[in-house]
Amino acid sequence: MEEGSFGFYLTNYLYLCNNLRKYAEMEYKYLDHIEYPSDLKQLPKEALPQVCNELRDFIIHQLSQHPGHLGSSLGTIELTVALHYVFDTPDDRIVWDVGHQAYAHKILTGRKARFHTNRQFKGIAPFPNPAESEYDAFIAGHASNSISAALGEQIANRLQGGKRQVVAVIGDGAMTGGLAFEGLNNTSMNKNNLLIILNDNNMAIDPIRGGFTQYLVDITTSEGYNRMRWKLYLLAKRLHLIDDKKKERVQRFNNSMKAILTRQPKNIFSNLNLRYFGPTDGHNVLDLVRILSEIKNYTGPRVLHIITQKGKGYTPAEQNPTIWHAPGEFKVETGVRKADTQPEQHTPILWQEVFGHTLLTLARQNGKIAGITPAMPSGCSMCIMQEELPERVFDVGIAEGHAVTFSAGLAKEGLRPYCNIYSSFLQRSYDNIIHDVALPQLPVVLCIDRAGIVGADGATHHGLFDLAYLRPIPNMIIGAPMKGRDLRDMLYTAQFTESPIAIRYPRGRTSDFTPDDIRSIDDCHKMETGRGVLLQKGEKAAVLSLGSIGERVAQAVDGMDVAHYDMRWLKPIDTDILDYAGEHYSTVFTAEEGTTSGGLGSAVLEYFADKGYKARVVRIGIDDRFVEHGSTDELYDMLGLDTKGIRKRISEALQA
């Protein structure tokens, strides 16, 4: 439905009326009167715990009907309230990392009435976005960028004579990313007044693994030390012993006292000359207000380490934070998710489940196969192999570049690594792919999940660019299955390649696999790379599709006098099909669920130009734009990539 039409406004009006009726009985003493942080600041501090309770209740009930990221935002409610109570936002900046922690932030910054539209088509954005609100200091869809971005904002303000406070909130595993450490290192080198809040909940989507996580666990501070340090600080301040000139000496003394009294060496933050505070309870809003009020006026970079619980305040989410990271619809009273009540046996399974079951099947037969994932074992279904063969699955944390280069090291010594990374996150490892994998021609299998339109997570998560950015890389094989069984065969085939191979597949459900269809390895077939297949004969034109969009193309051209080829491989591309199409058709269509710049359409145009073919090439895909959030069906309709839109595009082009 077109935005601005009568139907659009009528639908939203009726929805709003129903929503108001539904929640009419839910009255909040404080939250009903808070629209912006200025309203929050009018309350006495003693009211803040109740504000937190009301925010938590509001989020739980809203997300039970309008799905989103539940667990992470429940864990940061007290922190959010304290930040907006102490700091003068939006002039002071809060940079969230990652953005799925920021639902309470959205509610307190003018978006409460529209919160039911979160992640919905034409609704509010799934993550903080400066284009949506001046309270959103920086884009926050990918992890580990907060320290670098916030440092830049703080230094820019200082150089222009400003006094703005800038806070980087980093949590939910984002501290395991390499960019976070690069930001920490640079923060210690430059004059700045940045406050870094480390939200430590030992979780990303799955539990965080690795040495740094254990390191955070080991950073403990005794209550006696905390009390003594605080009293000494207040005494020194009253005696005017603390000022900017004496800051470094006081900090060195503080670090030495901590090492002595806690019997632990200086921590990584202190060693980088970042003033370290904590760890402290991230669910005590009054303590957070007190601490933030004090340290916000300190000069120089500092770190506040808080301990929180993902899913805090809702028992099902506390007990199983992985599932309740984004649980879908659920019953608040019982904690029963809608997904738990769906029939299983005859429902097509997810593409990621095809990957997970196939990888386990292959790994059972081939002892050289290893699985690598950057903090997404459940998201990509590598947990299926991890459960049975844990010693051959490596969750490396939110570190996509490392995941690729680590896979290259495994391949160099004879293993066959299957490295699974979401398409939009693979962008972060581009140099690693070129330098560490393709240049030495190592047989790393890049399993690219969530390729194409992914839906409600929006522009930061759509996987639209992988075909375009991988195609120019030498030694790279690129495949895109049309159906689940094609994915199974491509994964099987990848064992036998002597070059890196990338296999991209979409989010959502397959059309040809149900849970009881997962067979043994005997059902896998080796594919010939660089060979497509003819699905339908036709005389008027040819349509060349790549990937799962081919199913919509097949429905669109059904009954039309149009040939349809499933190309299967972007590189090497099937030149026999291209030669035939260039010689026999005056119009050739390409269809891909990705940017039309650099992908299949570009490859066909380049080939036709080199060979001198005169056929007109009409590219069906996504033009030069970022795509907003919404359901996949809504976005396909908007982009003309649903069956109806594809058929219309082909018909109009043939009539022109």
- Mass-distribution shape: globular
What is the overall number of helices?
Answer: 26
Arrangement of strands in the largest sheet: 7-6-8-9-11-10-15
**What's the total number of strands?**
17
SS-based class = alpha/beta
Low-pLDDT runs: 13-25, 215-224, 259-263
- Rg measurement, Å: 27 Å
Biggest β-sheet strands, sense, barrel: 7 strands, mixed
Q: Approximately how much beta-strand content do the residues carry?
A: 5-15%
Helical fraction = 40-55%
Distance between the termini: 27 Å
**Mean pLDDT over the residues:** 88
What's this model, at a glance?
The protein is of the alpha/beta class. The chain contains 26 helices and 17 strands.
Can you offer a commentary on this structure?
Helix 15 runs parallel beside helix 21. This protein has a seven-stranded mixed β-sheet with strand order 7-6-8-9-11-10-15, sandwiched between helices. Strand 6, helix 16 and strand 7 form a beta-alpha-beta unit. It is globular and about 90 Å long. Helices cover 40% and strands 14% of the residues. By secondary structure, the chain is of the alpha/beta class.
Spell out the blueprint of helices and strands.
Blueprint: H1 6-22, H2 37-40, H3 48-65, H4 70-74, H5 77-86, E1 93-97, H6 103-111, H7 146-159, E2 166-171, H8 178-189, E3 195-200, H9 211-218, H10 223-238, H11 247-262, H12 268-271, E4 275-281, H13 285-295, E5 302-307, H14 315-319, H15 351-365, E6 369-373, H16 383-388, E7 393-395, H17 400-412, E8 416-422, H18 423-426, H19 430-438, E9 445-449, H20 466-470, E10 477-479, H21 484-493, E11 501-504, E12 533-536, E13 541-546, H22 549-557, E14 562-566, E15 569-571, H23 575-584, E16 587-595, H24 600-611, E17 616-622, H25 632-639, H26 643-655
Parallel strand pairs: 1-2, 2-3, 3-5, 4-5, 6-7, 6-8, 8-9, 9-11, 10-11, 13-14, 13-16, 16-17
Antiparallel strand pairs: 10-15, 12-14
